Amino acid sequence: MPADTISLGDVEVTRVVEWSGPVRTARFIIPDSGEEIWQDNRDWLTPDFWTPDDDAYRCHIQTWVLRSEGKTILVDTGVGNDRERPQIPLFAGLKTDYLDRLQRAGVAPEDVDVVVNTHIHYDHVGWNTELRDGQWQPTFPNATYLIPRADYLYFNPENPSRSRPPRDEHERIRWEGGKLVFNDSIAPVHRAGQVVLWEDAHRIDGNLLLEAAPGHTPGSSVLTLRSGTDRAVFVGDMLHSPVQVLEPALNSCFCDDLRLAAKTRRAHLSRAAELGELVIPAHWPGHGAAEVRKDGDGFAIRAWAAFSRD
Fold it and tell me: How far is Cα 130 from Cα 133, in angstroms, rounded to an integer?
């Protein structure tokens, strides 16, 4: 079994990290969070999720590899190499060994049966494609790419009325960057006939179900895992930081519909606490995932997952 793998019922879950490090500050990423919540929990937030000396928010860009009912499934595909990313220069022109890391986890591109994009943001769809002979081509030639229809319509530059126009220069840069993301990471796999656009819910197999979870983006989704007595939910960007477990009303700076994002977050944390689901966000470093419990008006970490603290 690959080194950073756990079993949940009959499903193997492997963590493959593309990039790790600090991104901006904690209060930039979670704008409405006060210093107190970070300081009160610094003994366990530090150093995996936050470094107090520079207030840096720390994250992984990572893919979850699932092996279920004979299929290999990737949940989110990171940033990708060779990209123009004016909205976040930190991730422009990356040259990582992501495909080698997948290979070390026992996955060659042709082995992948399903790619799940929990939503269309640059750090969840990048390795959908790779640059070959000057053209963006699907990285995983035999895969079906599952993309939420709501996000496909919202971010498609051919449907500009679906997304409100930029209000300032910062939003204009994000708008232009979003078009680049769609054109280099989404449109090529759609042209190749490898995309299934789904809405409301989509069953992958007997263990895995995609469910709409809007707010962060219009098409944001979660992937629920039920196998034997084990339960898990891959929540994408619903949780950028564990402080959002403690206070579910706290949104990230990337959330599109703040009210809906907070409502969706609370609903899924409530379900996870009630059903004993392992909550697996897209970007958590450290142990990468956790079980949660109800705690007053919010929630708390009950136990960390068995992934190594890399």
Answer: 10
